[in-house]
Design goal:
alpha+beta; 5-stranded mixed β-sheet
Amino acid sequence: MIDLNHGSGAQYLPPQTLPDITAAVCAAIDTGLAARQGHERPRNYVSSSGLGRACLRQIQYDFLAVPKDEGQEFAPRTLRIFEAGHRGEDMVANWLRLAGFDLRTERPDGRQFGFSALAGRFKGHIDGCLVGGPVAMSYPALWESKALGASSWKDTVKRGVTIAKPVYAAQVALYQAYMDLPNPALFTALNRDTLEIYAELIPFDAALAQRMSDRAVAVVRASDAREWLPREAAEPTSVVCKGGMAAGHWHPPCAWARRCWGTRS
């Protein structure tokens, strides 16, 4: 029975301390994300998405699926950011189609379009191909999309993809070359904070594509010969290793820095 006598001082249940619901929910989500990540098989090929990174040895570690330094696996927050990026790509694709673009993102069997070279040891998968649309540009054209945080997005708008995001520029050049799409690529960047869209046409840079392709060959050949490729940095305090800004570019901390500079390098 409910006690409506507010002044009685009656108390039917002892006071309870509620858990921090935010912490509890986030911890459960993070556990699930970490478990899913742990079940994913590592890539066994050189990925076009990482060939523009500064250090060849870092790319080689990634190709060989060398275990990362302790504590250097992707944090749950990073996994959430990655997933948000994929969702952002899907949103922009839908918006382009609503705008009247003929955008192809999947084969009839549901797989992404892509290329494979070096007997399957060098691969890349594109976001899509624009076959036609309401905007005056050359078709067919590669479509590459990214979802960026506000600061990174603003820097891309200010300086352009080639200068602000050389890793993305290298990825685009490789796709244009191997997918035989020499027309200027349409690069779109979604601001994750404001949902603003930046679009840029990127001309085909054949010389860049050749340099990146040569890098893939160097990684595979050195790995077959059981030789380590040279480090980009001369010392472990370099931003290429520890992370940071250099020459206007952000370098994330290398996940193999301790291994690389330690006794197992």
